[in-house]
Amino acid sequence: MPDDTLIHDPKGGLLRLIAIMARLRDPDTGCPWDIEQDFASIAPYTIEEAYEVADAIEQENWPELRGELGDLLLQVIFHSQIAQDRGLFDVEDVANAISDKMVARHPHVFGAESRDKSAEQQTRDWEALKAAERAADAKSGTLDGVALGLPALLRAVKLQKRAARVGFDWPETSHVLDKIQEEVEELHEASEHLTQDKVEEEFGDLLFVMANLARHMKLCPETALRRANAKFTRRFERIEALLSEAGKTPDQSDLAEMDALWNRAKAEERGEA
User: Does pTM top 0.70 for this prediction?
Assistant: First the structure.
């Protein structure tokens, strides 16, 4: 029988988690589900856990954040164990790789460079170091290394940031707003005269420029949309509550009534009701 002393130690910390994952993946004594998993099957869970971390932060729910960070950490350990099982690398290699990267990218903290520079200068230096790393990895294209698996809005912003670094960018936010108007008109025309595929293309163009507007306004479009989703959820749930007080459900109502209740919910949020 394996020695489970560390696994059952409530103060075992990170080493305990690593031992737990190793046991779960053990081909003889582990969990059949965990043994079956590979990088691709686990990746969606990794993305989901990252969003749940962001959600806990958005709600300022710190006990929840602790748990969600643990779930995200488990994903790192899981991927690392799969890699170790395949003889690729292990969790120590993962930790050393990110440690090396952080030391190399902070010469003003861990090296001889002066710390006497602005956050903006530090950002420029960081980007210069990343560009040098990409060049060393034979990734010479401006857009090389922008992950395909990113959420589309975030990837749009990253692509635009890369292009902006080499001067491919509108100099003023007003130019982006003009482009949005142009894209709206093109989408309207496509919706009336062109195929659904072309309508989708024009809609994508509009979203891409909206992401660019967020970048120019120093906003995160993903965060903005998440907040809009939360606001919509709050207000629609208020509509349902008000309808319930009248003994009704949304499907027993109509748009005019629900729109009036939406305006009431909005006024209540603003302290106007």
Answer: no
